[in-house]
UniProtKB/TrEMBL annotation:
Pfam families: Methyltransf_22. It comes from Hirondellea gigas. This is Methyltransferase-like protein 24 isoform X2. Coiled coil: none annotated. Residues 23-177 form the Methyltransferase domain.
């Protein structure tokens, strides 16, 4: 995927949010500000799935003038309520392909010192999330950083045609489990995921850029060689039914 050329060009591509750690920016998200797909201040809605303790993008989208619906079941329900602006709305819910309450051990996954141990979290489908938060309008920008649940969530959303009206999607893709499979299993899993990504094009979304995540925690060393591969990265897509220029070359 990293070697695939861009399918559509954004002339004004910016990054909202992000913090610098060891001279590497983390947490920022690509946004296209071309007029045909631009987010309109005081008229745009962002759905942000997956927060942890890094909300620089959400704060930047708020300052830009968007209503930001922030969802994450792994932080306390009231964590982002105090001090947030009137445009930020936080809900302790996660995204999946089914709606349920399940027990999750946050001992390793949470960076929040007072939110550890086994807790009951709410996971919901995209349409049930919208019912839960009582928002039924257009979602202009969809962000997903949900640690592997993006595959089944995207599959559900496309299967139920729930992406209508959305103009921009950024999703962190994870492939870590692939390296624990046999060769036959791995090839079958990669084909399954590639076909899912192709379905996004059928739903009107074209690739602007894919960026491998620069993190040692997601780096896989290929056994018996000196080679390494990043097992996750961010895919940024635009809805193709705009007049944004198509491109057959890499966007750098």
């Amino acid at each position: 995927l990293e070697q695939e050329p861009s399918q559509v060009r954004c002339k004004k591509l910016v990054e909202l949010g992000g913090v610098s750690c060891d001279r590497i920016s983390d947490g920022g998200k690509l946004v296209c500000l071309d007029p045909e797909v631009s987010l309109k201040p005081h008229g745009c809605v962002v759905f942000s799935f997956g927060l942890g303790d890094e909300v620089s993008f959400d704060n930047a989208a708020d300052r830009f003038g968007c209503d930001v619906y922030m969802m994450d079941p792994t932080v306390p329900p009231q964590w982002y309520q105090d001090g947030s602006s009137s445009r930020q709305h936080f809900f302790s819910v996660g995204l999946s392909n089914q709606t349920m309450v399940e027990a999750m051990d946050l001992e390793q996954s949470s960076n929040l010192s007072d939110w550890r141990g086994v807790v009951n979290i709410t996971m919901a489908t995209y349409d049930d999330v919208r019912k839960l938060i009582k928002y039924h309008g257009t979602v202009h920008y969809l962000k997903m950083d949900i640690e592997g649940s993006e595959w089944k969530s995207l599959d559900y959303m496309m299967e139920n045609d729930l992406l209508q009206g959305t103009q921009q999607i950024i999703v962190e893709l994870h492939l870590l489990r692939f390296f624990r499979m046999t060769q036959e299993q791995g090839v079958a899993r990669l084909r399954q995921k590639w076909l899912l990504l192709e379905r996004l094009e059928e739903h009107g979304f074209l690739r602007v850029r894919y960026q491998a995540t620069q993190s040692s925690s997601t780096l896989h060393r290929i056994q018996g060689t000196n080679r390494t591969l990043q097992t996750c990265g961010e895919l940024f897509l635009l809805r193709s039914n705009s007049s944004v220029g198509h491109s057959n070359s890499h966007e750098q």
